[in-house]
Amino acid sequence: MGRWWPAALLGCAVAVVAVLAAAVVECAVTYDKKAVLIDGQRRILFSGSIHYPRSTPDMWEGLIQKAKDGGLDVIQTYVFWNGHEPTPGNYYFEERYDLVRFVKTVQKAGLFVHLRIGPYICGEWNFGGFPVWLKYVPGISFRTDNEPFKTAMQGFTEKIVGMMKSENLFASQGGPIILSQIENEYGPEGKEFGAAGQAYINWAAKMAVGLDTGVPWVMCKEEDAPDPVINACNGFYCDAFSPNKPYKPTMWTEAWSGWFTEFGGTIRQRPVEDLAFAVARFVQKGGSFINYYMYHGGTNFGRTAGGPFITTSYDYDAPIDEYGLIREPKHSHLKELHRAVKLCEQALVSVDPTITTLGTMQEAHVFRSPSGCAAFLANYNSNSHAKVVFNNEQYSLPPWSISILPDCKNVVFNSATVGVQTSQMQMWGDGATSMMWERYDEEVDSLAAAPLLTTTGLLEQLNVTRDSSDYLWYITSVDISPSENFLQGGGKPPSLSVQSAGHALHVFVNGQLQGSSYGTREDRRIKYNGNVNLRAGTNKIALLSVACGLPNVGVHYETWNTGVGGPVVLHGLNEGSRDLTWQTWSYQVGLKGEQMNLNSVEGSGSVEWMQGSLIAQKQQPLAWYKAYFETPSGDEPLALDMGSMGKGQVWINGQSIGRYWTAYADGDCKGCSYTGTFRAPKCQAGCGQPTQRWYHVPRSWLQPSRNLLVVLEELGGGDSSKIALAKRSVSSVCADVSEDHPNIKKWQIESYGEREHRRAKVHLRCAHGQSISAIRFASFGTPVGTCGNFQQGGCHSASSHAVLEKRCIGLQRCVVAISPDNFGGDPCPSVTKRVAVEAVCSPAA
Ligand code: GAL
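^ thats the input. predicted complex w/ beta-D-galactopyranose below
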């Protein structure tokens, strides 16, 4: 029993609200060393992160339903301060930021909420969730014992808690919120701050607990979380974690389902076998709360991506993909894990496990309680299968895997044995390439005619833009004498070196782009050095500094600089070098097209656009493109193929789809095994391809026809005629199931006949609105290979293809039991056989 929560709060009390005369079920949420208790019951809870602004409100219900179908109990989200309070005291809770609607949507689905208020949230979100204005509060210092910061943090936390309370959203009021979070991963940071860090975290805990939500608070990665706040683990594995007090439950707030991507980097994937292994390992150790970060990653629309260089896609290789489609086998294999663990729930929450050794790298974790016995058999060896004996029975454990036995006898799940289907996704065009494009060139020549400000020397970018735009122009002029050697046909052309704190830099001289340079997420700084075309007389040097998402993590990142810090030096003149750093510089925030709102329907009418063939004639950087398109039919998710363009931003009907950049992924895609300790760079994909080619276009942002598409291209040289809309859908589904697959499920035993349930089965399922149109491969025997390149093995039943065709063609889903009877006999008795199938999914007729 959680000694920090009043006994009176235990259990659910039914209160009759006099005014409405309606019964409201008020749930106390408490905790003890075994678990979080809801209605007085210890629970094993599976949770998944879905961040509301990373999808559109019309997607929420579907996403949450898919999470529920996947066996989740809880939806976890951060709260996004900079989205909610764009200027001090002016709040925004509409559209994608409609937090109350999101929480109520979860409630409607019958799930709980873990609300991570932060307000520091990291999350690869711009500025870690802090509004940029916060940096300019006098005397502020982020995330430490600093009065201005604490006042602001308390103000926002109170605002959110107050809002949730007034809508009765805490479980103590009958709502779905069972847990909250204050701060985020402060532990490592706090250590750097010493006593001030300790004072701050104590204050934060006290402040949060004082808000009296009636539900526990959590701090992740904070070993010093003061009572009654629960400290929780984040990571790829958390089985080594124990809470800081023996009376707190073992919670995992971020089980990383994959990883985020950076422009120029590869896609980071995490095999589900390893994720399931990690979760089972945590549960067998006594863990009782697991949150997948992310369960649906979604999209960093607009300029919300953190950084620098976090991609617009925040897909995360999550069980639900960026577009809201189920990713298989991740979703279903985890679902089976959840069902298996839930079958053990009573035993897991009642007793501590007894651990016995079954071999050099094998163990049994046994939970023997009066209500039953559950066992987890683990093989930590990453190279070989293990045969173990447990309770006088033999079990075979694949490498790096855990088998779950809810009755200490029958294996209902093995983390490395994936019996569910794999889906392959495709992006297919819809003829939108026939868009009629028009172009408007940003006027670089007239820059500095009316500068925002003029001063001596170089200014820090954020101090000038306050992040109202990614772009800041630094403009100066240099006088060049006609007697310069390089103008007389002698010597090398002059060059310009520019040092910038990041993130990207385009160098213009007399309106012409001379070159560009980019930092990286690891090192944001830029050292540009390139030849420049100078003429006799006055030359205008215009440096366009581009921010690509503000930092979201790092000690006092609010003090980190962005933009041209200098020195800026001209080399190769007769005098040698000329330092321009301390000249007079003029500043212009944003591009002209931004100021004219060219991205909106109204604003785009305010300039003359170049039409038709003229567009292709002259390629120029900083060009705006616009076109109209019709909404593609159907309900598949949509994406824009930007693979033909360079770098910039894109809008549809005035809504920002995000930043795009056709940066090619540099990495190591040699393939990977699920076995062995996982790290983010272990399983990479997409080497040599654009890190992000497709950009999610939410259907709810479209009107039936004449949708305005506006593209701002920084680099020039792109081909707008190749920009196209694509539909995303499942192209094929595969299954590869062994006849001794452990899907002899106890929950099936209860509902099916003995004979039927004892057979392993192949389940194939195309997406909603699709049906199976062809069987590309089928083999009952000993097939080899993986989805997309299966081949027959030494044993093969000749009827395999015909059987699958007969059972599946024309259907959205089909099930075929793996038995010789179904395939006209046994092609190789005494050999363990499998069925491997690849089925093509097409729009249903
Ligand atoms: C965690 C952090 C999350 C997110 C994650 C990486 O450390 O708490 O907010 O940034 O890393 O995706």
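The chain has four domains: 29-327, 427-440+596-726, 452-590, 739-744+758-843.
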